[in-house]
Design a protein that fits this description.
By secondary structure, this protein is an alpha/beta fold. The protein has helices at 27-42, 58-73, and strands spanning 4-11, 14-23, 45-56, 77-81. The chain has a single domain (4-81), classed as 2-Layer Sandwich (Transcription Regulator spoIIAA), CATH 3.30.750.
Length: 97
Amino acid sequence: MSLSFGTLKSEEKTVTLACHGKIVAGSEGSALREKVQQLMKDSPDVVLDLRDVSYIDSSGLGVLVSLYSTARAAGGKIKFENLVTPVTYTKPSPLTT
């Protein structure tokens, strides 16, 4: 499933963008970055509704972090809403010889 964007809603200086699918390396991450940068031209504050995002890989996480930095540098803010899937980490087992 690729990444798509849903209804945008705007309140004064804040725009909400609903994301659907996966935020991963490649065209999905690039599309999200481009979409948010485009929105920031008109509104400095962006809310990403991640309710329908089923997966974020390490590159997708990097995109989200870079968007945060981009928003701050532009004098705006970015907020992530509705993170529904818990993040889990499994410690790798030690190597045996």
